[in-house]
Amino acid sequence: MNLEKKQRILEQIRQEEIKLGRPIKLRRYLAEVNPNIAEAQATVSKLYREDNPLDAKTIAMVNLAAALVTRVPMCIRNNMQAALNAGVTHEEIGAVMAHAQFIAGTAVFSASLEGLETILQEQQA
Hints:
Blueprint: H1 3-20, H2 25-33, H3 35-50, H4 56-70, H5 73-85, H6 90-124
Helix pairs in contact: 1-2, 2-3, 4-5, 4-6
């Protein structure tokens, strides 16, 4: 492993942490164990930011919805803060939360529908 590359990536993460005002624990850990993957993720992230027709507020709301549906507490906290920083209001965050809950609930219902249909068909037979 190239120690200079690892140190460069860790320094980039440190600068991002200063800008964000919070630690980036997952990326820092990944940079420690596999700097090449951390570097590739940073490159992809940069491409998403540069070549994106969505404004920062919309991106923040989409990211928050995805974090809510995946139910990862760290992602929810980070994306909620990012949404606030992007100008998303408390009311808009509440609306995103409601929509995410509705879609997640619908997905659970939809996924269970096939099993329910099977049970009902077996009972009717």
